[in-house]
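hey can u check if this looks right to u? its 309 residues, i copy pasted from the old doc so theres a chance i mangled smth
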Amino acid sequence: MIDRLIEKIIALKNPTVVGLDPRLNLIPDHVKEAAFAEYGKTPEGAAAAFLKFNQDIIDAVCDLVPAVKPQIAMYEMLGIPGVKAFADTVKYAKKKGLIVIGDIKRSDIASTAEAYAAAHIGTTDVEGESFAAFDEDMITVNPYLGSDSIDPFFKAMQARDRGMFILCKTSNPGGGEFQDLIVDGMPLYEKVGLRIEDWGAAFRGSYGFSDIGAVVGATYPEQGVRLRKLLPHTFFLVPGYGAQGATAKDLAGCFNEDGIGAIVNSSRGIIGAWKSAKYNTQFTPEEYAQASRAAIIDMQQDLWGALNA
């Protein structure tokens, strides 16, 4: 799986993943009004607006980026209609040739972990008939229940050429309350990172990276540099660029010298570009998808400028 992602990054010269995290305040009025006219101001109406918004942005950027990353919580808060919009977004993105990273951050043990794996990267058996429920290419996973919360995902990964990113050093300010604790002389996040590297040994592709990657926040550049050295075979999913305050220079240390080794997420900075001061004079609300495309191009140039500095 990781080889497919790396090859798309190289082909497009763009290590960017678009976070599809829709909220009603990010969606232009004309999109909401059309959805509400059909379904009312209901979860069904909001979910229809989410899906239309996502599809238009996917259409506008699918030739520029290798992947999208829908955050499932944004959809779950709408209940069943929202979950369906999540599933339909995944299906639409894959139809357009994009790799889908399901940002689900699941964690549990035994049969429950197996069920999460089956739902998102594996298949479910219904008395001899097999189907893929959400069918993402990769997912995010929380490791803090230990190895028996991670092992159940391996079978689904191997069976269907899928991957996952395990939380390591997250971008949020409070992450350090636990992740920075010193354990046996090193921060806990480094111990987690080394375990991720070990888990990934059996899943390495032709570029030397594993299908098991790590989430490493761009908001902690020194830690990113340190983890890049400690984890030479672990590909990074890097949140924190843009709206969370990290710059391209901050995250450059997450990459190897050849510019490979990480994919950088931006959510509000791309899907909400039409509202920002940088783009709202160039694009009308009806041109929100074009604003997202412009933000992608600017982000790509920013990243490569930092990587080639």
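The chain has one domain: 2-307.
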